[in-house]
């Protein structure tokens, strides 16, 4: 069986020495490909100038897998996360988020919304898989799916607006590209005053990066710009308070804090989830850092009643 391709594929024999194995005229021969895999080949190469064609083809086949009802949930999620990883490097490497990148990101988030609607139990599996990647990848995906789950639980969002929430959440820290990457993922207490000043620029930097991208909807922009505002008025960049903050940005603020608190390695620990929710609740009650009714909803969604016995005192 062969499949037509619009790019050439090479096998690396030694440093600087490549052999042409599949071409645009021959297509990919799967039997031969299986033979290479059996011999231990793990990497094939594509010319740099044909890279975008390869990516487009990879996305088309991933989308086909995703839309096929006969493919298992686990396989679909693995494909979705593979697409996400490729997309992440595009989103976070461009000076401006390009239109086609925004479109691909939207498509990804649409898939996340579908997964969470059809198989809500996939959350733990997704977290386990993304926890193997770097922090930015883990955090972007985790915040996006947490935000989708919380927004869905409010009952106030339709499918299209859930996608906007998921997209804004996925891109929420896109402004960090312009800020020292060593500061990413650090808690505010770990930063010097000068570093904190730097970090506080990332919402505006993020907004700036998507400003010229017409297909990033306004709702997603508000999320990027306002996800560090707090109902108390002590957030940044503008210190706006209460209902002046865009409601989905409050959801993403909670999902962001929740993801940072439970961390990558403990995503399946119900005790830590409960502890994180308790901390969110305290911060919402005592300091007005988060929207309290939304935090209560998080408690309902992420801590099943029967497991509340594990809740930390
Ligand atoms: Fe942020």
Concise structural overview:
The chain has helices at residues 30-38, 51-67, 73-91, 99-118, 122-130, 135-154, 159-170, 193-199, 202-211, 218-226, 247-262, 270-287, 292-302; strands at residues 2-3, 9-14, 17-22, 28-29, 45-46. With 313 residues, the chain is mainly alpha-helical.
Topology summary:
Elements: E1 2-3, E2 9-14, E3 17-22, E4 28-29, H1 30-38, E5 45-46, H2 51-67, H3 73-91, H4 99-118, H5 122-130, H6 135-154, H7 159-170, H8 193-199, H9 202-211, H10 218-226, H11 247-262, H12 270-287, H13 292-302
Helix pairs in contact: 2-3, 3-4, 3-5, 4-6, 4-7, 5-6, 6-7, 6-11, 6-13, 7-10, 9-10, 10-11, 11-12, 12-13
Fe (ii) ion is lined by residues 172-173, 202, 227-228.
What does this protein structure show overall?
This protein is mainly alpha-helical and 313 residues long. The chain folds into two domains: 46 residues, no CATH class; 254 residues, Hypothetical protein af1432 (Orthogonal Bundle), CATH 1.10.3210. 57% of the residues lie in helices and 6% in strands. It contains 13 helices and five strands. The strands form two sheets. It has a three-stranded antiparallel sheet with strand order 3-2-5, with no helix packed on it. Helix 5 packs antiparallel against helix 6. The radius of gyration is 21 Å and the shape is globular. The termini are far apart. The C terminus is likely disordered. Fe (ii) ion (FE2) binds next to loops. The site of fe (ii) ion (FE2) has 5 residues, from loops.
């Amino acid at each position: 069986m062969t499949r037509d391709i619009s790019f050439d594929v090479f096998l690396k024999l030694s440093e600087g020495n490549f052999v042409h194995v599949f071409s645009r005229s021959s297509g990919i021969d799967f039997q031969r490909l299986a033979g290479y895999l059996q011999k231990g080949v793990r990497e094939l190469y594509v010319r740099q100038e044909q890279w975008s064609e390869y990516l487009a083809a990879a996305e088309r086949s991933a989308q086909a897998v995703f839309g096929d009802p006969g493919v298992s949930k686990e396989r679909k999620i693995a494909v979705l996360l593979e697409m996400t990883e490729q997309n992440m490097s595009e989103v976070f490497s461009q000076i401006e988020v390009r239109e086609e990148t925004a479109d691909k990101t939207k498509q990804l988030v649409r898939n996340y919304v579908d997964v969470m609607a059809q198989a809500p139990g996939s959350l733990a599996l997704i977290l386990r898989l993304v926890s193997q990647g770097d922090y930015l990848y883990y955090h972007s995906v985790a915040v996006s799916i947490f935000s989708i789950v919380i927004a869905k639980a409010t009952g106030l969002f339709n499918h299209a607006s859930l996608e906007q929430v998921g997209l804004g959440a996925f891109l929420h820290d896109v402004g960090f590209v312009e800020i020292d990457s060593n500061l990413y993922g650090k808690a505010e207490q770990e930063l010097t005053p000068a570093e904190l000043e730097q970090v506080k620029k990332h919402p505006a930097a993020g907004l700036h990066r998507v400003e010229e991208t017409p297909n990033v909807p306004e709702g997603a922009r508000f999320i990027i710009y306002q996800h560090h505002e707090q109902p108390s008025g002590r957030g940044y960049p503008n210190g706006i308070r209460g209902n002046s903050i865009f409601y989905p940005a409050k959801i993403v603020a909670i999902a962001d804090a929740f993801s940072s608190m439970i961390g990558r390695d403990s995503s399946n620990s119900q005790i830590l989830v409960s502890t994180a929710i308790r901390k969110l609740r305290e911060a919402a009650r005592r300091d007005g850092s988060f929207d309290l009714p939304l935090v209560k909803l998080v408690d309902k969604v992420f801590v099943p009643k029967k497991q509340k016995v594990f809740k930390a005192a």
